[in-house]
Structure of Acyl-CoA hydrolase:
Amino acid sequence: MENRTPRQSFTTVTDLVLPSETNPLNNLFGGELLARMDRAASIAARRHCRRVVVTASVNHVAFSRMIPLGSVVTIEAQVSRAFKSSMEVYMDVYIEDRESGERTKANEAIYSFVAVDDTGRPVQIPAIHPETEDEKNRYDAALRRKQLSLVLAGKMKAAEATELKALFE
Ligand SMILES: CC(C)(COP(=O)(O)OP(=O)(O)OC[C@H]1O[C@@H](n2cnc3c(N)ncnc32)[C@H](O)[C@@H]1OP(=O)(O)O)[C@@H](O)C(=O)NCCC(=O)NCCS
């Protein structure tokens, strides 16, 4: 199976914020952003492995800035690390100033996907080789995040989460 780079999964999705997608303060509803990110991330995951992918977990979402009605929102998604059948997808969310066109980072998120066969069983995916410094940093931290996700889901004992434990030693 041929190795891939994070860049090969790079996905960008740009869309407007419409009135039906906002909360009472006229800012983008959080659940709407989660769904948009899920779509962008699933495309990135699919581009990495060329298989059917399912969302396994939402590991981190930081809603650090409100996104007002009428905003142009761009989600950039890229696989940061591939394991056996699962992948971490890292996303950066930007909004664009109408007049200057300048981009501001509004949010970021990390989702995990699993590649599956036609019956929903996990299948092996290609390895990934990070190229840039940012890609290498995200790759290195991904194992820690996977272990945390598995511990929280009750699928791994805390004592076995070696990368997590190393953080506190
Ligand atoms: C995700 C899913 C395929 C995992 O199946 P499973 O029977 O737990 O399979 P395994 O235990 O063999 O795990 C498969 C991989 O998923 C990873 N995984 C499972 N749960 C995870 C979690 N909560 N966070 C991160 N990774 C997870 C495992 O670590 C393993 O990764 P690896 O092969 O890269 O080492 C299965 O739980 C599923 O189909 N869930 C529903 C998915 C879905 O419908 N999503 C849409 C939400 S509506």
In short: The chain is about 25% helix and 30% strand. The chain has one domain: 6-130. The beta strands are 11-16, 52-63, 72-82, 86-96, 103-116. The pocket of coenzyme A is lined by residues 54-57, 83-86, 112, 114, 116, 120, 122, 146, 149-150, 153, 155 (CB under 6 Å).
